[in-house]
Amino acid sequence: xxxxxxxxxxESALRERCTADCSRCPTFPAPFRRIGxxxxxxxxxxxxxxxxxxxxxxxxxxxxxxxxxxxxxxxQPEQPARLVTSKQCVCLERDAVCQVTAQDGGTCVVVxxxxxxxxxxxxxxxxxxxxxxxxxxxVQMPVLTLHPVVEQLLxxxxxxxxxxxxxxxxxxxxxxxxxxxxxLYTPTEQACFxxxxxxxxxxxxxxxxxxxxxxxxxxxxxxxxxxxxxxxxRRFAACFNDSVYHWMMEQKAHRILADIRDGEGSxxxxxxxxxxxxxxxxxxxxxxxxxxxPAQLIARVRERQGGTAGEL
Length: 312
Description:
It holds the Pfam family HTH_18. The protein is of the alpha+beta class.
């Protein structure tokens, strides 16, 4: 299929100039009205025929696409295309142009556009990241399977037209959606799914966990964070209670050990993968961080897999 340029995505229009006095709203008392008061969020339902689509701009917003039926092909400049099918959702990369094209007739998508903070009871619900040391897979446009409870929430959102036009209703439903996400998905799934919308100033720990494997040096990681090297080191020490270099070397050691446990038995392959030119250098690294030489580590794994004593 020849993908032609698509019209730019346009959000549904709300009553931005509503004159109602929400402070005395009999339907939604004050605790509910507080949800999302400092945030921007909006749901839009779109139906496509095959070949139709839209272009999402680079405008600082986060776009989360929930595919209720059909399928979408997602395309970004200099990135491989990604297919998102029915009952899946995808978080588009923040500040990046993305074109989506329906692959099937009757494709139905609910788009949530929001600023990257979603507040609930005056706290950012993204504030709590995964546990320290949790490995977060680096995925360009991460996809989650749509939970039936989330699908039910999205499917019923537009049934009452008068409510679908209310700005506060959008904010309440967004808060409800993310509360469900926090309950129905693991912290690692949440961190992976929303990694493209997390910047250093949002959650430093999650940013480091998401990006340290892409950086070849501490200076490169600091540059990715948009910080000076000295400022990055200070922030890192305060957050991790460790030096950046030591922490990154420990993460490399953990990945080496994981590869060996997964069956990699070639020291040459490990050296090439992790940038060691000489075996003596590699062996010294493993002894310093894993308390054994590469050959000893491989032998222990083989012994354990063979049913004999030996443990890493």
